[in-house]
Amino acid sequence: EAEVGRVDVLVNNAGTAESAPFDRTTDALWDRMLAVNVTGAFALCRALIPKMIARGFGRVVNVASTAGLAGCAYSTAYCASKHAMVGMTRAIALEIARTPVTINCVCPGWANTRMADEAIARIAEKTGRGEDAARRALEAMSPQGRMVEPEEVALVVAMLCSDEARSIHGQAIPVDGGQVMR
After folding, report:
1. What domain range is 30 assigned to?
2. I need a labelling partner for 62 at 20 to 30 A (CA). Which of 10, 20, 153, 161 fits?
3. What CATH number is given to the structural domain containing 72?
């Protein structure tokens, strides 16, 4: 906080996604997924939540993924990192439950982002399908038949940061058009 000032709201939204069959997942890929997708968030939570508690207010939203709620083939390291984010959120939530600080996860499904565009390009390259076909396949994973828009995820994050969300704590909230129901 000495560098950035008072922090009342922390949104951990750094992320990267790479894929490989589990038996070809290198130690470097594994370490990179965990470092970017969960270790940085843990370090920020550890540094900032005690100060939020001392001041009497705080909201933490960790952006995980539906991959943190279910497994995904060819994404062992990514899924492990997102499950770790959900588990970390729930563990911290239990420790701080009687404080004025809340912590939750938002778990987007496939969203119209650069990360999805990169995944679509990889799928097209690895399968020989065109990018349009790869995009349609990802869209079909949602019962709504579409990708989530970043603004939809942002709306849930903003709601969780509000004073009115003080009873929402330790939750992993999918924003996925119903994808995890399948």
Report:
1. 9-110+150-181
2. 20
3. 3.40.50.720
Q: What is the pLDDT of residue 46?
A: 98
Q: Indicate the number of domains in the chain.
A: 1
Catalytic residue among 10, 37, 65, 78: 78
Are 36 and 14 in contact, with CB atoms under 8 Å apart? yes
Buried b (16+ CB within 10 A) or exposed e, 102-129: bbbbbbbbbbbbeebeebbeebbeeeee
Q: Is 74 one of the annotated active-site residues of the chain? A: no
**In this structure, what token pair is assigned to residue 98?**
């009687």
Is residue 140 domain-resident?
A: no
- Quick one: pLDDT at residue 53? 98
Residue 71 scores a pLDDT above 90: no
Strands of the sheet with 101-108, listed across from one edge: 9-12, 58-63, 101-108, 172-175
The answer, yes or no, to whether residue 123 has pLDDT greater than 80, is: yes
Instruction: Please check whether residue 31 lies inside any domain of the structure.
Output: yes
Query: Per residue in 8-66, pLDDT tens?
Result: 999 999 988 888 899 999 999 999 999 999 999 999 999 999 999 999 999 999 999 99
93 inside domain = yes
Half-sphere exposure at residue 45, Cβ-oriented, CA atoms within 13 angstroms:
27
Establish if 159 belongs to a structural domain: yes
Please give the mean pLDDT across all residues of the chain: 95
